[in-house]
Amino acid sequence: MLLQGLVALISNSAAHLGGAMYLGPVVSTVEVLVTCDNLDMQNNKAELSGGAIFSSRSLQFNANGRSTLHGNKAGGTGGAIALLENVMILKQGHSMQVAHNEAGAHGGGFALLSGAWISISEDEACSADCSGASRGNGVCDPQCLNRACNWDDGDCNVQFENAGHDAQESCNRHVNTCSFVGRPRQRVPALAFWRHVTTVSKAVLRKRNTSRHALCWTPKFILR
Fold first, then answer.
1. Rounded mean pLDDT, 109-136
2. The pLDDT of residue 69 is above 90
């Protein structure tokens, strides 16, 4: 199931599950994946679980898309989304904003139930910003430091191998670069390097989602 373009579901309600969208189980030997580009769900309500969405199928939010989940309510779990026994995949570059949702029990934003989990995955193709000549040339290129680009063919390994020596580095905090005291070292913009490593997806969980627990799931978080 593919939801292309902008899909807006506003002020819907359900007496049981999924105020705006209910995706029930499918009897099939093939996994049924529901993919979304741009999703806008606001002020939906379910008396039980999944104020905006209740799904027993896997959900995928595509790269470069944007999802907004605002002001949804569930009487039970999952103020915005309740996911049962499946995975919610956030592709790299998808921006998700979850705010002002409410659940009567658990998961003001999300409730991941019975082993459901979130997977944040990278694009399968190497970015055009990382050319073939940039990989394996002895220079650490942060834009190549991902699985799709084969981790810059090992060029950034020295950054991790020498991590224990970082306390001895002299840093210019005005330009965010460091050089090792006593011997030359490749200079890499420190903030840009670590932001690239740690920022895989722009998923945002705002503090204003309200419930006994803002995010509730059976612990099984996978970073591919």
1. 83
2. yes
Q: Please tell me the pTM assigned to this model.
A: 0.58
CA distance 83 to 5: 23
Report how far residue 158's alpha carbon sits from residue 105's, in angstroms, rounded to the nearest whole number: 48
Give every strand in the sheet of 13-14, ordered side by side: 13-14, 45-46, 73-74, 102-103
Structure letter (DSSP) for residue 71: S
Whole-Å CA distances, 80 to 64, 73, 77, 148, 202: 21, 7, 9, 32, 17
Pick 5 or 16 by higher pLDDT: 16
Look at residue 205 and give its three-state secondary structure: strand
Whole-angstrom Cα distance, residue 53 to residue 80? 6
Report the DSSP beta bridge partners of residue 23.
Answer: 55
